[in-house]
Amino acid sequence: MTNLEAKFEDLPQEYAGLGGRGMTSTIVSKEVPPTCHPLGIHNKLVIAPGIVTGTRAPTSGRVSVGGKSPLTGGIKEANAGTSFAQMLGRMRIGAIIVEGKHAGDDYFLLKVTNDGAEFMDANKWAGKGLYNTYKALYKEFGDTVGICGVGIAAELLGSMSGVCFNDPEGLPSRYSGRGGLGAVMASKGLKFIIADPANAPGVEIANEEVFSEGIKKLINALGEHPVTQPKGGLNSFGTSVLVNIINEAGGLPQRNFSRGQDERAEKISGEVKAEEIKKRGGIRPHFCSPGCIIQCSEVWTKPGGKDPVGVLEYESVWALGANCEIYNLDDIGELNRACNDLGCDTIEAGDTLAVAMEGGLAKFGDGKAALKLMDEIRKKTPIGRILAQGTEITGRVLGVTRIPTVKGQGLPAYDPRAIKGIGVTYATTPMGADHTAGYAIAPEIMGVGGEADPRDPKKAELSRNLQIATAAVDATGYCLFIAFAVLDIPSGLEGIVESLNGVLGTELTVADVPIIGKQILDIELDFNKKAGFTAIDDRLPEFFMEEKLPPSDEVFNVTDDELDSVF
Amino acid sequence: MPIRIKFFGDLRKKVNPDIQGSLPLKLSIDNADIERISDILKRYSIEENEVIHIFVNGRYSGLTKKVKSGDIVAIFPRNMSVLYKWYFNREEDE
Fold it and tell me: What is the pTM assigned to this prediction?
């Protein structure tokens, strides 16, 4: 970015065979000094499709974005499902590396085609909401392009800013949200990347027969399983199917993590939302990227089917809803719209709003006041600038002591006092509090065996194996939700491995999956260690150990030794 | 004190075919003849394979879990089987 130069380079041998999180974390580890300033000249933003992304493999349209996080100060990978990912794959782009830093206040757009890449002036879109901007970009570059962009929150260099990708309707609703990577992109002077896949050669497949056999097995597994099949749980209700389930488990945090259950949460469940979308003429089910069998996505709209927002994910409904005591889907929808429009991570935004409410900036349950706070970000006011920095900083500025963060990153929608295993993952993942870091293949497949009591504090081995498996899935380009099917149907996991072999020409086996995952995690842990992280950073905030969570009255009682034994 | 039961998703229609909307169906029943979760399913002619998640007072439970007066039981249908299930142990009683 320093001299506005863009060029294609052959993939170095050391990066061959990598994809997704494997690619981003390897490049960041090799090319970014761990002690650098995340918003300085030495950080890099890496955008990489998964190994099978862009092929016919089902549910594989994932893109990983990596860099050093301004929110956590450690390595970060955040991924999203979007056709933009598939376009990069079909253009045979292993990764886009954004490096250097443009001096001054100008913003640029990078257009990437099959023949080259060029920078264009993007100042006219600075300070504007992403909904209208994405419309304008499609008008200018055509309906067949993919868009990656950052919003006003990133212009503020806010740590709650994400990297935003288009959904199939062209809405700015698919986010690599976590860790403030939007700010990294904006800090370099880059506002948008347009991918134009015209004349793209497609993903090179080394062994078509093995690949076809593999994806057939996976398609069968996804089609058979009640969670992933058409009219299954995710397809019918979206990820918000979890609202009622986690609420019944007493682990749906309410009012800034002060309760684990509330009957009012029933009003914002996936079932209620699905019915309302049908009534309004929104879209459900819906895919985030072409070729997905699960189709958990949706398009939420205002009443009458007007002003589409995009998907309202479980974590977003929780963060902007229950956690702020807002039990009204219309208010939550508008808050989600504000997040998408401003380029904010919905989880970090919801945690921040709840902490702001606790700090007296608005009343809990007041959706309109929450929207006004988001408007402070849009107007770039001093309050908006503080909020844009996320939960930790907002809480400290307002003198709030119940700040739900690990490594500076806001906790997602599962209270670690009720579901302790996920608390171990929040504490120990190199990503900062992240539910997706341990959301993967069954413990029994990883050789751990059996299920675990959620309130049993001995969780280290379970968390470690889940984190390893997740890192491996994040490298493939497959969506993590395939885990539900391959958990119960072993041929599905074989199919995944065969599809990788088909693309890469390798001879991997199921036994290699944890080895791949471990390599990625080791790279990330090493980066964080060099960035100054110690065991003390692998802890939950004190209030989780001290404040009982109603109604179970549990505290987080996993010992420090247990946490330290994870890695 | 009765047992409070919440049926979710498709199970609601099984118990009350006329139900509208999408909020859970909540019932309070006396505990005569109800010793375990499986007895509740029998009372409403729900097959075991139609059910995926059961919570008794927030604890993830299986079909043999005993229930008593004052308990709150939540029952989810098979097509709502989305859960980090490896973090949960199904509690059963002898």
Answer: 0.96
